[in-house]
Amino acid sequence: MTAETSQLRGIYLLTPDVGSSTFDAVLNIVRQSLEAGVRAIQYRDKTAGLTQRLERACQLVALTRAAGALLIVNDSVEIASSSNADGVHIGRDDGELAEARRRLPHQLLGVSCYNELSRARAAVAAGADAIAFGSVYPSLTKPAAVRAPLSLLSDARAAWPQRRIIAIGGINTHNVATVAAAGADAAAVLDAIFGAANPATAARELVRRFNEGRSRFQT
To answer: How many Å apart are CA 169 and CA 13, to the nearest integer?
Structure first.
């Protein structure tokens, strides 16, 4: 297990797609979330060009390093490598896992496994450090996403205790403790913080409730 893998716990904040004029607002919310106890940020950006994405990733790396947290880049091994991020997270259409592991031998490799233990098994065999399941609940970000039952989290924890199990999709302050109690090492959120009236308060409450749920998880 890499040092980055062992750090991947708790609330895992995903960034939204934004225009160049509003990325400062994203940085501000990320900063507040880190101060509230969020320990991992995933930079997601489907709209910006490669140069701008790299610049933004580098800004986020600076923030997370200062806070002792992780910066994971979504989709792009190239940006993860060039920005010196702590890792990359890839889905079914984002390239070969073996190639990502070859290019990032010491960084965290996260993989989307949707609702499939078989996909998780293949990902672990290819060198994945973290396996993500979802959508656990109906998702505003991806309303058409497949649904993953909570039992997948505990099944995956039992099968791969040295990997990090991530839950994603529709997670908020009302259900994050349930997700943690089911066995998730980390809960990925976006709207629960970026869509909140007070992001700092929302982040702090998510961290608190996740930790309460983890205390109920039985290994």
So the answer is: 12
Q: Where are the domains of the chain?
A: 3-214
Rounded to whole angstroms, how far apart are CA atoms 187 and 136? 10
d(C-alpha 4, C-alpha 87), whole Å: 8
CB 177 within 8 A of CB 12: no
Please list the residues that pair with 74 across neighbouring strands. Answer: 89
Q: Which CATH superfamily is domain 3-214 in?
A: Aldolase class I (3.20.20.70)
pLDDT at 149: 94
For the full predicted model, state whether its pTM sits above 0.90.
yes
Rounded to whole angstroms, the Cα distance separating 148 from 55 reads 34
For 48-100, the pLDDT digits (tens) are 889 999 999 999 999 999 999 999 999 999 999 999 999 999 987 666 888 89
CA 216 from centre of chain = 22
